[in-house]
Amino acid sequence: MLSINNNFPEYAVPGVKQVRFEPYADNGGSIVAIAGEDYAVIGADTRLSTGFSIYTREQKKLFKLSERTVLGATGCWCDTLTLTRLLQARLQMYEHEHNKSMSTPAVAQMLSTMLYYKRFFPYYVSNILAGLDAEGKGCVYSYDPIGHCERSTFRAGGSAGAQLQPLLDNQIGLKNMQNVSEVPIPKEKALALLKDVFISAAERDIYTGDSIYIVIITANGIQEEKFELRKD
Amino acid sequence: MFRNQYDSDVTVWSPQGRLHQVEYAMEAVKLGSATVGLKNKQFAVLIALKRAVSELSAYQKKIIPIDDHIGISISGLTADARMLSRFMRTECLNHRYSHDAPMPVGRLIALVGNKMQICTQRYDKRPLGVGLLVAGYDDQGPHIYQTCPSANFFDCRAMAIGARSQSARTYLEKHLNTFMDSDLQELVAHGLRALRDTLPNEVELNTKNVSIAIVGPKTPLRVSDEAELTRFLALVEGEERRGGGASATGDAGPAPDRPAGEDRDPQAAVAMDTE
Lengths: 232, 275
Hints:
The complex is a heterodimer. By secondary structure, chain A is α+β, with helices and mostly antiparallel strands. Helices cover 30% and strands 31% of the residues of chain A. Chain A has helices at residues 4-7, 77-98, 104-117, 161-171, 187-204, and strands spanning 30-35, 39-45, 48-50, 53-56, 62-66, 69-75, 125-132, 138-143, 149-152, 154-158, 211-218, 221-228. In chain A, the strands form three sheets. Chain A has a five-stranded antiparallel sheet. Chain B is of the alpha+beta class. In chain B, 31% of the residues lie in helices and 21% in strands. Chain B is built from six helices and ten strands; from the N terminus they run H-E-E-E-E-H-H-E-E-E-E-H-H-E-E-H. A five-stranded antiparallel sheet of chain B has the order 8-1-2-9-10, with helices on one face. Chain B has a five-stranded antiparallel sheet with strand order 3-4-5-6-7. Classes of the chains: A alpha+beta, B alpha+beta. The interface between A and B is small, with 6 and 6 residues. Chain A: It comes from Iphiclides podalirius. Chain A: Its main location: nucleus.
């Protein structure tokens, strides 16, 4: 970069040059997942960026692991790719050994241990796992880079996570609202909310935008939808 | 067989230039129940006869899926087959991880051959007593491979191994030229007829003792379930058995000119086929 010794020879000073290699990159992106009584929805934007530049506007960040489990992963894209490949290999190994596909809670636990294996050189990835648990109820598991795992009903992660989570707390968790009754949120309302939430994210977060893919997981299988966002 | 002073160790050659331990290991393959593999222009099919240890136990699984595009059928020591299948699965998964593409079948077979060869040249190991029929589909098309405890492997158009498999091989040789142009249903029917020829008289093919696996273009390896087995078996129901009446011991097949109980000097089988 701006090296004093090379660019301004009159100011050159003797000394050791420290050469640094930054192993991580932040490629941006946001994920939101909502779990219902018998469904789970997860959406992720499609923008991959670095600094103030855009790498691509069409990168899917949702990875289908099985017929009832989908992982959304953002952050460092190289770590995301490696982590998802490793996950898929482990899932196939499980299927060979046990003659059945892994349940969502099992994948959740396995992902947690896989992330912790790299406790001292972590995957710089923000993970959210969505799917149906063993009883067919929707579930959302969210992670930090070293594998802390928590099951919840709704979660926002990625670059706009901090901005979107309070909005979800209010709309789905009904926090700070008066005279409201707890009703399980229906699928259509969850989808509409998801889209609104991403529109808000695209307004304020430079790393989120272009479009989102939404994956809906139900007992009948997996459906995918695409939804356009601001391109700026 | 007969006892030799050169057969106690796999690292000892006999004066005739044979490794007796390896040949004895090939005998183990002939003890397993029969299995047939054949292919047409697109699909590779494995058909296996399952055996139950007793009426109480389940039938021993003969077909092991390795990857979406490769499956194997085993004959011989099941435990050895399990170790091999675990090795093959790991290799295929690693290949997919690093190359983002399915493992070419021939390359996997070469890796298996190398692994099996080690056991034929070390004093502290024994040859793996299992023969495999490998069915796979890659960008070169469908493949059927046979592997032996001698670590040899053969690219086949069709093959049968296991107890009384000579009758099956005879059937396959007779109809070899029709396989390439058969459709999938006819191919499976041929395989079932070949397998049926290895059965003793009182046993019939049914959905409990038959296993079928098919792999092909846009068709990931699939071991047939009960409904599909019923449909396939219906294709060959009621037909006359051609080979029938094979002897209950050894792999002699329906050969009336060979008197039973004769001590045959084994042919130099190490570098050649398993029969």
